[in-house]
Amino acid sequence: MVLSANPINTHLGHITVAVVTGTPGPPVTHVPLGADAGLTRYDVSYANATDLHAVNKERFLGRRGLCSKDELAHVESLVRVYLEL
Q1: Number of structural domains the chain divides into
Q2: For 28-61, how does the pLDDT look when each residue is reduced to its tens digit (9 = 90+)?
């Protein structure tokens, strides 16, 4: 899941992401992503708010899905807690 802002992404060589996994974790770290997100790799997908990475933009070939605003806000709140922001 891309976390960094699009206007900033255009100027940087890397994009900040949270890993999406098929493994459920504790609700304080993992946000379930609904079927509407369009993700198909796992039966149920989860964004892990504690598994953050900077990934080279060249690795991104296209969008795989799109989470809801509520899901993104939930991940954002968990990242803030995790990083004590």
Answers
A1: 1
A2: 999 999 888 999 888 899 999 999 999 999 998 8
